[in-house]
TrEMBL record:
UniProt GO molecular function: CoA-transferase activity
Stated name of the protein: Butyryl-CoA:acetoacetate CoA-transferase alpha subunit
Keyword Transferase attached: yes
NCBIfam families membership: pcaI_scoA_fam
Xref: SUPFAM superfamilies: NagB/RpiA/CoA transferase-like (SSF100950)
Amino acid sequence: MINKVITADEAVAGVKDGMTIMVGGFLGTGSPEILMDALVRKGVKHLTVIGNDGGLAEGQPANGPGKTPRGIGKLLEHHMVDHIIASHLGVNPRLNEQFADGTLTYTLVPQGTLAEKIRAANYGLGGVLTPTGLGTPMETEKDELGREKKTVVIDGKKFLFERPLHADYAFCRASLCDRFGNFMSAKATKNYNYVMAGAADHVVVATEKLVEIGSVDPDIFAVSGVMVNDVVEGEPKWQI
């Protein structure tokens, strides 16, 4: 029987400087904190990070107990990110400080478009069509990876063609996961975790609760373990 459970440090061992990673969650809610901690310990640099936002910085009231950085905010705190692709960047002051001093760049992508671009990579689609961005610089500027933009007319309606967004690693958080990697995320912690699992060469899930294969009703799981390479147990309970 396949057992994909490893330690957090083992799970990030293959991450190298300059790689592109995806991180699930929304302002820390649903982010895999033990995997972010492991990346900080590893000390990789010059990452391109794909996520909804820049996480939370140290001391922000929304952080809850301890007010430590959360999610992608941990990577920003240690200046590990060169470029971030996200839809919401106004909360974490570290991100804006690093942008101002020229050590970080970012690409803003509308939230629905960002999710669909990731989903396209997950499901092997050639891209998605959306009216969002028409008549704005998004229609003519290159995308977040420097690719030319295109427009398509269907039944007399114009759409912007958005290409898939893929990463080297996707780091996701589960509330419940079995040893094969079948997992589910409770309530608001679903944010981006389901869509990112499968949109990268290597998918790691950090789970709050680990169960044996076959010990729970499989209908509980939202994502199949075939999408997951590694499972790490010990993710702290949802605190935000």
